[in-house]
Write a structure and sequence with these properties.
Largest sheet of chain B: 3 strands, antiparallel
Number of strands of chain B: 3
Shape of chain A: globular
Strand order of the largest sheet of chain B: 1-3-2
Distance between the termini of chain A: 24 Å
Oligomer: heterodimer
Order of helices and strands of chain B: HHHHHHHEHEE
Radius of gyration of chain B: 35 Å
Helix content of chain B: 40-55%
Number of helices of chain A: 9
Radius of gyration of chain A: 20 Å
Distance between the termini of chain B: 49 Å
Number of strands of chain A: 6
CATH architecture of the largest domain in chain A: Orthogonal Bundle
Order of helices and strands of chain A: HEHHEEHHEHHEEHH
CATH topology of the largest domain in chain A: Arc Repressor Mutant, subunit A
Strand content of chain A: 5-15%
Structural class of chain B: mainly alpha
Structural class of chain A: alpha+beta
Number of domains of chain A: 2
Largest interface: A-B, 58 and 52 residues
Chain lengths: 208, 264
């Protein structure tokens, strides 16, 4: 199959699905390998972007999904009454940020960073499907561990967790190198990207 | 701000927590986080909590913990500095600064999240097609309204006798109860007459598990019987660790009416 045909097929598949399609699924259907599909879908996505087309393609967690062009949203709003989603509270955004970088993380760990109770924010986020209880920590009380969901990536426009803004730790003042903190807490989140779970790893060979 | 359904949401308006309040004070006093005038900040912080108390607002415990941390740091600052090494001196404010810096990073990220959410709320997705995972679903393309109407009529015609037929319901009601709480209670009391203690799982007969539903049914009934006896003060149960064996002890009878109020 030549590339033109492949790109056309991918466009058809993504349109027909509506929902996110994984690279492996597309490779399966098109009887080719993940790498080839990824290359083709990127060409297509770049094309749509460059030509400022009304439909775009975005990457979500090793899959791709079609969406409307953000700059055209006024037109949609005139066509339909767009439901205004109720925003999250400040506490929810803070808790979500902590979970995004520190996952999997317990409620206590979140509260230690925020210095204040966070249970209601956690339950609100779970209710909204932005986080999920991924397991329990093997420690006294077996506390619940939280991770972000695929919907988190979708709602906040990330392709994967590696897409999160990089937080620099160099600006931390008064840090003694190699300092061990009393609570055993790792100082800073400099290496957040390396310690993130394979959840959204960009390694396409291990996709799904 | 406060989420409904959670009755105990205590919050000081505008401040998410003690760190938030501290940052507000830093900003107000144009303070560099690396060199916090701890005396000034402690006084202002505590004054704020006092004002809140005057206004009859409940103060979340995190704010009080921070107040005591600030006082502790302040008192340590007043003492002569402790020589750890010959070279290094520990600044009592260091831990606080580290935590504040850490918190500030996430606070900044949460601003980014908020704006990204707004940005990405401008796009819409197409609703997923109701295709099945098995790609063998055939969608008839020659639908016509008459056929549809006819099909609907036939479905309803077949459905009505179906819901009027009470045979399955009746046979369920009439099914003999294989295990009752009453019989299980008698069984347990009988066993406990012979021995002082026993393990809960010995109550069940694995060989009966072959009968459909019998294993689970017996376990549920048996467990309910144990709880019932425990409630009536006829036995004691202990469990050493989660998921370990539940041990049942006989409790000496201290009241006359034997089958007082067991009901099945």
């Amino acid at each position: 199959m030549d590339q033109k045909k492949l790109i056309s097929m991918i466009e058809t598949l993504l349109f027909s699905s509506g929902d996110r399609l994984t690279l492996t699924r597309m490779a399966d259907v098109l009887e080719t390998d993940v790498k080839t599909v990824k290359y083709a879908v990127r060409i297509l996505a770049d094309e749509l972007q460059a030509q400022e087309r009304g439909i775009r393609i975005r990457e979500i967690d090793n899959g791709y999904q079609m969406h409307s062009a953000p700059e055209n949203h006024e037109a949609i709003a005139r066509l339909y009454e767009v439901r205004r989603k109720q925003g999250l509270s400040q506490a929810c955004y803070e808790v979500l940020s902590i979970i995004a970088y520190k996952q999997p993380v317990t409620r206590i760990q979140i509260e230690r960073i925020r210095g204040t109770a966070s249970d209601s924010a956690i339950s609100k986020l779970a209710e909204k499907g932005l986080i999920w209880a991924s397991g329990r920590l093997d420690a006294p009380g077996r506390p619940i561990l939280y991770e972000t969901t695929q919907d988190f990536l979708r709602v906040f426009g990330f392709a994967s967790l590696k897409d999160l803004p990089i937080i620099d730790i160099i600006d931390v003042p008064g840090m003694i190198p190699g300092m061990v903190l009393p609570d055993g807490h790792e100082p800073g989140i400099r290496d957040a990207a390396e310690t993130l779970p394979e959840y959204a790893g960009l390694n396409i060979d291990s996709a799904e | 701000m406060g989420e409904p359904n959670h009755p105990c949401v205590l919050k000081i308006p505008d401040f998410e927590g003690p760190f938030d309040l501290l940052f507000h004070l830093f900003e107000k006093n144009k303070i560099n986080i690396q060199d916090i005038p701890i005396g000034l900040i402690t006084d202002q912080y505590i004054q704020y909590l006092k004002d809140m108390a005057k206004m009859d607002m409940e103060i979340a415990s995190g704010f009080l913990v921070m107040a005591s941390t600030l006082l502790h740091i302040k008192s340590r600052m007043l003492l002569p500095k402790i020589e750890v090494d010959d070279t290094e001196k520990i600044d009592p404010r260091e831990e606080l600064v580290r935590r504040l810096t850490e918190y500030r990073k996430f606070k900044e990220v949460s601003e980014t999240l908020r704006s990204r959410e707004e940005e990405w709320a401008r796009v819409v997705y197409k609703a997923a097609e109701p295709f099945s995972r098995e790609h063998r679903v055939e969608i008839p393309m020659d639908l016509d309204p008459v056929l549809l109407q006819d099909s609907a009529r036939r479905v309803f015609a077949a459905y009505v006798p179906c819901i009027e037929d009470t045979t399955p319901k009746m046979s369920m009601i009439l099914q003999k109860e294989r295990f009752s709480i009453k019989s299980k209670i008698e069984e347990i009391l009988g066993l406990l007459k012979k021995k002082l203690r026993m393990v809960l799982k010995d109550l069940f007969h694995p060989d009966r598990a072959g009968e459909p539903g019998a294993g689970r049914e017996e376990m549920v009934t048996g467990f309910a019987a144990v709880l019932e006896l425990c409630r009536a003060g006829r036995l004691k149960i202990t469990q050493e660790a989660p998921f370990s064996d539940i041990i049942i002890y006989r409790k000496e009878e201290n009241h006359g009416s034997k089958k007082a109020d067991f009901h099945d």
